[in-house]
Amino acid sequence: MKIKKLLTIGLSLSIFIASCPISANALDKIESIKGADKYETAGIIADKQNYTTAILINADSTMADGLSASGLAGAINAPILLTKKNNIPNATLKRLEKAKKVYIIGGENSIDKYTETVLKGKGIEIKRLQGSDRIKTSYNVAKEINSITK
Asked: pTM for this structure?
């Protein structure tokens, strides 16, 4: 008797849920975002934001720093821009003109001191978040997010 009651309730609930209208408004418009390369594509995404702080990661590394940076980007509403270890592509430099502050994610093995010096020369405040390995870098990024959101 108990099983029949449970089956009846389950079936009734299933029918009710199935009869609820589903809205697919989120899928009405698909926008393709693509640039000539990954640096330009990241720049085009940044162009859609209003920002004074940006996050810089090395696009040639394993992207572990990018995963860590994504939480910080959400916390401060900043774009993640891509660079090389010792050379900032023009597509990235163009977007950094709007920034007053840049977080560099990773140590000097990811983005060297020269890149930091170039940005400081443009009057941009730099804050490097790094650790002795990917896990410690990610931890330091998380600590920064925590200090910002308090």
From this structure: 0.79
**Contact (CB, 8 A) for 70 and 119:** no
Structural class in CATH, domain 38-149: alpha beta
- Could you give the residue ranges of the DSSP H alpha helices within the chain? 2-19, 38-47, 64-76, 90-96, 113-121, 134-149
Identify whether the C-beta of residue 127 lies closer than 8 Å to the C-beta of residue 78.
Answer: no
Q: Are 55 and 81 spatial neighbours (Cβ–Cβ below 8 Å)?
A: yes
Spell out the domain ranges in the chain. Answer: 38-149
Which residues, in sequence order, are CB contacts of 42 under 8 Å at separation 6+?
Answer: 35, 59, 79, 80, 81, 82, 91, 92, 95
* Residue 1 vs residue 83, higher pLDDT: 83
